[in-house]
Amino acid sequence: MDEQIDLHELLNKLNNEQIVFLLNIIFNNRPTEIYIGRFPENIIQSAGLNKDNPVCLNGTVIQINTEYSFTGEKLPFMENNKTN
């Protein structure tokens, strides 16, 4: 018989470093898109996760990185949707 696991209880016991580790495992095995809303343009842009560093700690905050996080290039969706 399978034992039920209370995921809320499990996650509440983890520290941020352990959560980052868990998220890296999850994101490594599943396709994931991040949707970013932009105001005042009323645009939602999607981006894939950064393949080298999808999740990390930034101080005490869990940081999720998109494919555009570490690029010096102009972002394609910013070029196409300029506002005055």
Task: Explain how this protein is built.
This protein is α+β, with helices and mostly antiparallel strands. The chain has one domain (14-80). 31% of the residues lie in helices and 24% in strands. It is built from 3 helices and 4 strands, in the order ααββββα. The protein has helices spanning 7-13, 16-29, 76-80, and strands at 33-38, 43-48, 55-58, 61-64. The strands form 2 sheets. Strands 1-2 form a two-stranded antiparallel ribbon. The protein is elongated and about 50 Å long.
Looking at the chains present, what oligomeric state does this protein adopt? single chain
Separation, N- and C-terminal Cα atoms: 62 Å
Strand order of the largest sheet: 1-2
Label the structural class.
Answer: alpha+beta
Query: How much of the sequence is in beta strands?
Result: 15-25%
Output the helix-strand order.
Answer: HHEEEEH
Question: Mind summarizing the main beta sheet?
Answer: 2 strands, antiparallel
Q: How many H/I helical runs? A: 3
- Compute the number of structural domains: 1
Q: Residue ranges: pLDDT <50 for 5 or more in a row?
A: none
